[in-house]
Amino acid sequence: MLRAPTKMAIKFKFTYSLIFVMFIIVFLATLHHHSRRDLTAVKRNGLYYRNDFISSASNYTIAAYLRNLTGRPHLAGTPSSLGAAVYVKSHFERLKLDTRVVNYTVLLSYPLSASVTACFSNGSDVPVPLSEPGVTGDGGGGVVMPYHAYSPSGSAYGKAVFLNYGRDDDYRELAAVGVDVEGCVGIVRRGGGLSRSEAVERAASRGVAAVLMYTDGDREKFAAGVERGTVMSSLGDPLSPGWETGEKLRLDDPRVRDKFPKVPSLPISMAAAGIILRSLEGAEIPQQWTKNLKNSGIDFKKVGPGPTMLNFSYQGEKKMATIHNVFGIIRGLEEPDRFVVLGNHRDAWTYGAVDPNSGTAALLDIARRYARLVSLGWNPRRTIMLCSWDAEEFGMIGSTEFVEQNLMNLAAKSVAYLNVDCAVQGPGFFASATPQLDDLLLNVAKMVRDPDNERMTIFETWAVVSNRGANIQRLSRVDSDFASFLQLAGIPSVDLYYGKDFPVYHTAFDSYDWMIKFGDPFFQRHMAVSGVWGLLGLHLADEAVLPFNYEPYAAELLRYTRSLSGVLEGGVSLDPIFDAIRELTAAAKAIEEEAKKLRKDETMAELLILERRMLNDRLMSAERGFLNTEGVNGRQWFKHLVYGPSTGGETELDFFPGIVDAVSRSTHLNNTERGAIIQHEIWRVARAIQRAAYALKGNLT
Known about the structure:
By secondary structure, this protein is α/β, with parallel strands linked by helices. The chain is built from 21 helices and 18 strands. Helix 5 links the parallel strand 5 (185-189) and strand 6 (210-214). Helix 12 crosses helix 16 (524-542), helix 17 packs antiparallel against helix 18 (575-600) and helix 18 runs antiparallel to helix 19 (606-621).
């Protein structure tokens, strides 16, 4: 039997309910207060940690790291290279970073013997010097003799002939003055938009029997330096093209054999090249070449062929060797499955003070400073990976094997890849990036003092030198470890360095002594690069909303397309690309407005956390939209249709590689066939831009 509640019971229940409601209100208010306080602390600490990172820079420690790294040569696959890997590993372990080493067994290339003799018209035979004076070694613990990795072994005896850069236009100029290069030993100077492999391949296709390659310019006392390098035409282990360890192809497999030149080649010094070039007779130097040759450092008048004969011999070996990638990892607290990757290669042709260990020293110092922040209580929102790659000099092998092995995870979870190779080559700050990172890069450059002018920031000096604001370059080239991250995996990337170039590149003079005399005596430039590099990592790892802006990307694509319209002839239309860019521009503006709102809203509500995560995923994935599964025609490994290498290496266009290749390879076709090939590539680029727009929108068509 139910009874009606008494007045006292009703009063008690009302009082209890009121107390409970008041408790909930106070609890929520307290929770909100703590959330606001905690968020404010995070923001304050974020600025605090960035300031501490800048203030804890030390030129002394960077100098010590570089001195230890460059005590002996460390060519990839040699015992001394393993010693350098152990040094980096031990450093990460001392800092209590999660340290890992991943080994790969890959095909590398080493010299056995080489000789070149110049047989002059007066009857004298003179050995051409192939090594730097006073430099000896065996490659294992000493300096490896100058050679081209993956050059085939072979010998040749033929007239010497000067080929300039070895471009198609250069051969046309030679033909115009009656020079026949078939059977000759060609002298090529590095540059002209061609890689070493492209220069040797073009020579082989025209019947040149062997190639000697030198680097000219104002080398002063370093004219005797010899630039080593690879002539393989692909990236990664040549025996596993497109995949990491496991199945290996045979050396005689066409997929392997076609990566190597058909004729042997050797690097020689500018001084050695001068001995040969000044002895040439025959045709006059073509008028088109004389302007660039005025400052080449060698005074000669004729291109040959002959009368000087060259007796060329090279013997090398390709063999399996173990390389070592070393990783130091700081696990993210809130988004541990999102990765910010900082990388530098460690292997060097010789001592590698500039290339690459100025960058390695900077990476080790960033690790030290990040570890210091951890000891102060900092935890990044996202996981940071510090990567020390091996065998970059042979064709970005260490980083490429890693990307191929982890392609799916990297494509889905990587925020950005930040690369430094030669951190310091000389004066002047240079940066390359995918355009969505432009704003962040410029903002960080405003936070770091210029090492050569303390009254200015890097940004201020950069803007003055470029004469039109800070000039951020792009990443179509294939000369460092960003290539596989961007051009295969579609990960937003940055590449940083001080100094345009340096006279001891890949020579035995790239030593600690050169650095303290010429490159950066007080290691101030090293600190500047590590400052920009490390701050980029902190922003990308810590900011709740990723600091990406795709509006500069859309503007850059529009500029590219307008430039392309001035090159293309009639019969094709760029309207599909213009339409896709308009769609990308609208999507970029819309997502930037979303990002601004989410950055301003400081609440920690779960819904907003989810919204930020979803927005970040769209910002991360848009770069992948520029990839095409079929890749660039003829170079299928390269998937990026905006940035990547083209076979038309002589063109000034460094974007839309598929379109540039189509223009280059269709010159012999009639207008209808040529137009169809080019138009197909235009449509492919348009669809790629549209995919990026869809990714930013976060919806299906």
